[in-house]
Write a structure and sequence with these properties.
The protein has a six-stranded parallel β-sheet with strand order 3-2-1-4-5-6, sandwiched between helices. It has two domains: 159 residues, HAD superfamily/HAD-like (Rossmann fold, 3-Layer(aba) Sandwich); 65 residues. The longest helix has 20 residues. The chain has ten helices and six strands; from the N terminus they run E-H-H-H-H-H-E-H-E-H-E-H-E-E-H-H. The chain binds magnesium ion. The site of magnesium ion has 7 residues, from loops.
Length: 230
């Protein structure tokens, strides 16, 4: 059996990465421009639900808006070495499985995603890690290429995907005939408010997902439990 995991908001909280990135940008702005207070302003916008133009908005607030500066801030944000940790349930879930039983499929900017993988120590713990953006933006989920790649050597019914975003994560595994996906709906995750599709099993943590797996007869057991739950 192959357990495939998403990264952001599945193994760690994406908001922790956002804050870590804002801190890096804050330090850069203080050094390069003598500007203080970016972190607090940007975080205020983020927790208020603002997305996509936070850098511009903060610079506008302090009369420093400049497209070149925004691009540089974006580069600092994306290339920083993040201060993030695996959530406790993610750490124990990964520890309880052999690296050969696990894979990761994640979208996102390649430099950022690989920095997260390094920071979380995942390379040593997960045999196959695919950052879809390494192939190009067109291969981000729901494109099936990454799922087809990790499935090599397994039957579709031996694979399961655990992820958090109902808008894109579960389309390809369902189309390939994988087991019903497990939707992890973490408190304070970015997509927490989006309902879980009926075709998925919802869990709040990976401890709950682990209950679906049982040593000895993992695939059969999960399928049996899924049949009971759905
Ligand atoms: Mg995610």
């Amino acid at each position: 059996m192959l357990i495939v995991l998403d990264l952001d908001d599945t193994l760690y909280l994406e908001r922790d990465y956002v804050r870590s990135g804002f801190k890096a940008v804050d330090a850069w702005l203080a050094t390069e421009c003598g500007t203080n207070g970016f972190l607090e302003r940007a975080w205020h916008y983020f927790v208020s639900g603002r997305r996509n133009d936070i850098f511009n908005q903060v610079l506008r607030d302090i009369d420093l808006e400049d497209d070149g500066k925004v691009l540089k801030m974006l580069e600092v944000y994306r290339s920083h070495e993040p201060d993030i940790q695996l959530l406790p349930d993610a750490l124990s879930f990964i520890r309880n499985h052999a690296s050969t039983e696990l894979a990761i499929i994640s979208d996102g900017h390649s430099v950022s995603q690989w920095a997260k993988v390094r920071s979380l120590g995942l390379k040593e713990r997960v045999k196959t890690i695919i950052i879809t953006n390494d192939w190009g933006r067109e291969y981000w989920k729901p494109h099936p290429r990454a799922f087809e790649a990790v499935q090599q050597g397994y039957l579709p019914g031996e694979c399961v995907y655990i992820a958090d975003n109902p808008l894109k994560d579960f389309i390809a595994p369902a189309a390939l005939g994988w087991m019903p996906s497990i939707r992890i709906r973490r408190a304070r995750s970015l997509h927490e408010d989006i309902p879980t599709p009926e075709s998925c099993i919802e869990v709040g943590t990976l401890d709950e997902a682990a209950i679906l797996f049982c040593k000895g007869a993992k695939g059969r057991n999960l399928r049996k439990r899924i049949l009971c739950l759905t």
